[in-house]
Amino acid sequence: MDETEILTEVKAGNTIAFERLYDCYWLKVYNFAQLCITSSFEVSEVVQDVFVKVWESREMFDETKNFDGFLFIITRNIIFNYSRRHFYELKSYIDKLIEQLPPQRRRIFKMSREQHLTNKEIAERCAVSEKAIERQITMALKFLRDNLPMFIVFMG
């Protein structure tokens, strides 16, 4: 069977043709996903999700058009969703870490990172020296750095 025949059969719901399609394309999807995602477990999940999506949308694809392009769009979108989910998980974790900082350090860190104030502006608002602000920001960053490896181990 050529690609058009396989796609026609998959579109009709033929699971054996779908297995052939998977066999022909899984490595392309895997290699592409590896360019964007470092965890081999997550890359495998992406491949699985891509082919689930292909199966679910099989009635929509046009067997006369470029299947590679269709597959690329699905793969790109799934990778984007994975990346976005992990970005939000990381941001949420960092926000929780920031909330663990002592109140004054947390306030200074937020003024620096969220309000984008300079150390001088923060020092004026807090009525302390710029050195004190630098020290508080350095301590906050050290706390975050020390606690992020646990997140990475947990997520990996």
Task: Please give the alpha-carbon distance between the first and last residues.
Answer: 40 Å
* Mean pLDDT, all residues: 89
List low-confidence stretches: none
Largest sheet: none
Number of helices: 7
Counted beta strands: 0
Shape: rod-shaped
Q: Could you estimate the helical fraction of the residues in percent?
A: over 70%
Order of helices and strands: HHHHHHH
| Class of secondary structure makeup | mainly alpha
Kindly estimate the percentage of residues that lie in beta strands according to DSSP: under 5%
The radius of gyration computed from the alpha-carbon positions, rounded to a whole number of angstroms, is 24 Å
Question: How would you describe this protein?
Answer:
By secondary structure, the protein is mainly α. Helix content is 81%, strand content 0%. The chain has 7 helices and no strands. Helix 3 (40-56) packs across helix 4. The longest helix has 34 residues, at 67-100. The chain is rod-shaped. The relative contact order is 0.08. The mean pLDDT is 89.
Descriptive keywords:
156 residues, mainly alpha, rod-shaped
Short structural description:
This protein has 156 residues and is an all-alpha fold. 81% of the residues lie in helices and 0% in strands.
Layout of strands and helices, then pairs:
Elements: H1 3-11, H2 15-36, H3 40-56, H4 67-100, H5 103-113, H6 119-126, H7 130-155
Helix pairs in contact: 1-2, 2-3, 2-4, 3-4, 4-7, 5-7, 6-7
